[in-house]
Amino acid sequence: MTINRSLRSRLGSAARSADAPRFHTEPRPKGTAASRRGSALLAVLWLSAALSAIAFAMSLTVRSETDRTATSMDDLRSYYLASAGVQKATLEVLWTATQSAGLVPRHAPFVDYQFPSGAAHVEIIPESAKLNVNRASFDQLEALLTGLGVDGARASTIAAGIVDWRGPAGAGSDFDAYYLSLTPSFQAPHTSIQEIEELLSVRGVTPDIFYGTWAAAGNGDAGENPLVRHPGLNDCLTVYGMSAGDVGSALSVAGAGPVADAGANPGASPAAAHDVVQDLLTSGRAIVTFRSTARLRLPDGQLSDMRRTVGAQVKLMPFGTVDSFYVLRWYDTAWSQ
């Protein structure tokens, strides 16, 4: 009996020993757990940096798009504000001439309007104040080009080219030979100029001479001095008008100032050419360019630095006609001083 108990006890111990889990007794490499923890921390830091960069880039994009949208909205509002200035000036000039309303001062080269959303400065530029390109003489055209800053030889070439362009065809004209030598070649029409843009095809005329250009004031450093616009032929010449006009008046209305002019009318006053009301009262009709520059009003009541300029060439009709005026040309983007 005692033997059996002893045997069972030994067998049970052996069985428990066999069922018990066996543990590794080999030594573990030092630093394995720490290395894994360091790698995980480094991965988390890199992921955080990447997410931060993405968030920063997205915030910059959103801010840029927000600023761009706000600028576009201000530009659109300025456009309609400037357009309102053109329309109001057109009607007030008509009412002043036909109804004696006295809304536009006599001889006024411009008028200022205050709106709840901003201000509009409207320049009044009658075509009668410009030089008629189809009637001006060679001397007048040369004096005008000299007043615009074109050098003497080039001014003489352009003036002669304009006279040749609108004059009858001549045998063996140097200008015709020049136009035929170009690629593509063309022939001068030798007739009255219908659109002022035809001058861009005249020998010697460049876009800078026609449209004008911008240059730094003062010592010529654009970084320290504001840009000043120098007008071009487009600002001084017209295809409308019964008379040739006056060179001094044409330069004055373009902002170039008076010059000594062999073809100017004695005693002519540039300011008198701005009297659109008198033109309407005298002839019953007038062609005027209204150039409106608008600035929005900020929440603090000050005017914005951003300017938007539009222009319209308008034909004013006599009182009593079905349509009081016609818009001959509309300029969505125009320059202003």
List keywords for this structure.
337 residues; Ribonucleotide Reductase Protein R1, domain 1; two-stranded parallel ribbon; 43% helix; five-stranded antiparallel sheet; elongated; alpha+beta; 9 helices
A few lines on this structure:
With about 325 residues, this protein is α+β, with helices and mostly antiparallel strands. It contains nine helices and nine strands.
Word description of this protein:
The protein is an alpha+beta fold and 337 residues long. The protein has a single domain, classed as EpsJ-like (Ribonucleotide Reductase Protein R1, domain 1, Orthogonal Bundle), CATH 1.10.40.60. It has 9 helices and 9 strands. It has helices at 2-19, 32-99, 138-147, 152-166, 174-181, 207-211, 233-236, 247-254, 276-283; strands at 110-115, 118-126, 131-132, 213-216, 227-230, 237-238, 286-296, 308-316, 325-331. The strands form 3 sheets. The protein has a 5-stranded antiparallel sheet with strand order 1-2-7-8-9. Helix 2 (32-99) crosses helix 9, helix 3 packs across helix 4 (152-166) and helix 3 packs parallel to helix 8 (247-254). It is elongated, with a radius of gyration of 40 Å. The model is unreliable at 258-273 (pLDDT under 50).
